[in-house]
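hey m, so remember when u said the tokens were messed up on ur end? i reran from scratch. heres the input so u can diff it against urs
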Amino acid sequence: MDIDAWVWWLIGAVGLGIPLVLTAMPEFGMFAIGAVAAAVTAALGGGVVAQILVFVIVSVALIAVVRPIANRHRDQRPQHRSGIDALRGRSAVVLERVDSSGGRIKLAGEIWSARTLDAHSSFEPGQSVDVVEIDGATAVVM
């Protein structure tokens, strides 16, 4: 049984696609696309040298172009704050008078103990305050 060269290239592309899925390394996908391009070259009657050149050129070009773009996008991803980091900078409503010794606020739908950042300031019920930091289970506000 004599298998055409383009079929071998497609088998190679599938073989390169398997580690892409298993390791999530995009380079394998770029090599697989190069193998598909070489299969097209073989199907159009290109010789072995042309097939190998197309495979190498397409694979290297994809790695040289796509990888830096992907790295740039990965580095620009917005950072999602969670937990107490997500509460810093949010506004809260004073429920019980808040001063340097304590008080209560409603923050993100929950009731928190709170104290002021400045020892000489205080906030009355109904006022809006900003959370500066979370110190244990106490919100520090101003």
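this time it looks ok to me. The CA atoms of residues 50 and 92 lie 68 Å apart. if urs says something different then somethings off w ur setup not the seq
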